[in-house]
Amino acid sequence: MPLSNLLLSPKNRLLILNMALLITLTGCGGGGGWQMPPPVVDVVAASQQPWIVEYQASGTLEANNKVDLNSEIAGTITHISVREGDSVQAGQSIMRLKADKQLAQLQQSAAGITASQGNIEQQKADISQAAARLNSAAVKMRLTQSELQRYERLYADQFISQLELDQKRSNYDTAVADHQEALQALSSAKARYSQAASGLAQARSSYRYNVALADESVIRAPFTGIVGQKYVDLGDYVAPTEKLVTVVDPSLFKLQFTVPEQYLHRLRVGQPIRATFEGLGNTSFSGSVNFIDPVVDMAAHTVTVKAILPGSKQLRHGLFGTVNLALGTIQNAVVIPEEAIVPQGEKTFVYVVRHEVYTPTAQPDEKEKAAPAKPQAASPPTDVAHLQEVTVGHRSAGKVQIQSGLAAGDRVIVNGLQKVNDNMQVNLNAGKAGAGAKGQ
Question: Which one of 37, 52, 198, 350 has the lowest number of neighbouring Cβ atoms within 10 Å?
Fold first, then answer.
């Protein structure tokens, strides 16, 4: 049989393939065992950039004004003028309670004011009349007095008789009496006017009291806002302490949270904050600090801080959110992606990739059996991963600030960490090797 047919037979071809596979598995050119190729990893170069130091806390959102309205008196709801979700102005009527007695008293006090005003006008007329009478009596008294004086001189010169003088004296005495009576009438008219004025003041005071009493039956919006939940219906009988309806002012919101006392020196009024709420899809809202508690909680060693957020249709009273408070900036911070971090116990590491001549790590048993090294040609540099301990500072939005252990430009592995060990050759993913960490 020809040699070519012998080699190309199916049985011999299978034997040749197995031998080729055996040669591959046992290695070639040196007799070493078969090795897995270096893992492919993604690396990112540590960047140097300003780092905004933020403290993150949790807080509950509160409307600037929120009130649960109730009535000052007991009564039956007779009218509801708004619906849930309606906008209301300060002072606008929301509900009314039955107030027949209060309205009757109000009408009665209004009638009392009308009557008192009529009496005042009558007293004014009486004073004018009494003043006119007094003026006339004073004129008459002066005339009779002058005439009496003239007759007394005539009588002294014996030009008139005693009878004529007595008649003039009688006229004068009558005029004096009339003047005194007119003076008393004017005084009495003024006294009645004073009494009428006091009655009018009392009537007006009673009216104001009854207005306030009747107004207690009207539930009004204390400020401009939105009607929240309604707790009563038309016809319900309510007590003074019963909750009727909620009114919320959405023009401004407050967010209260606590900050450790170690950051107290960094706090100031007007400091910017960012708030996110899971219930709103983690949408971010900007605000500012408007209150820093002057008292530190001695038990928790924290300071209460309040921030204000501008009103928004999305925000709701009672939302639970996360607050990011800007506390300052670290210039030239070393920053890497958070996925590069390798925690081991209480320590933190990263895999740093260096381009160098690879030197395999010798195992203990291999060191004992190792023969004297034979001179070999230098291997070309390659990418080698080294486990490097680092000190982590601040974290934010998937990035980490490194306080020590790394320098700007150092390349760290961010993807493929599960395949890497210390002092291992790695292949860099084409197109991603050496990419820098994005700034904040």
Answer: 37
**pTM of the predicted structure, to 2 decimals:** 0.53
DSSP letters for 273-317: EEEEEGGGTTEEEEEEEEEEEEEEETTTTEEEEEEEEE--SS--T
Strand partners, 75: 238
Residue 158 and residue 113 share a domain? yes
Q: DSSP 3-state assignment of 188?
A: helix
Q: Which residue has the higher pLDDT, 117 or 16?
A: 117
Q: How far apart are CA 350 and CA 346, in angstroms?
A: 14
Phi, psi of 259 (to 5 degrees): -125, 135
Cross-strand pairs, 296: 303
Domain around 225: 71-96+218-243
From the CB of residue 273, how many other CB atoms can be counted at a distance below 10 Å?
23
In tens, the pLDDT along 294-351 reads 999 999 999 999 999 998 888 988 899 999 988 888 889 999 999 999 999 889 999 9
Angle made by CA atoms 437, 381, 342, in degrees to the nearest 5: 40
Count of structural domains within the chain: 3
The whole-angstrom separation of Cα 260 and Cα 42 is 38
Whether residues 184 and 196 share a domain: the answer is yes
Going by their DSSP bridges, the two strands 40-45 and 87-88 should be labelled as unpaired
Which tens digit of pLDDT belongs to each residue from 72-99? 888 899 999 999 989 999 999 999 988 8
Mean pLDDT in residue range 280-300: 93
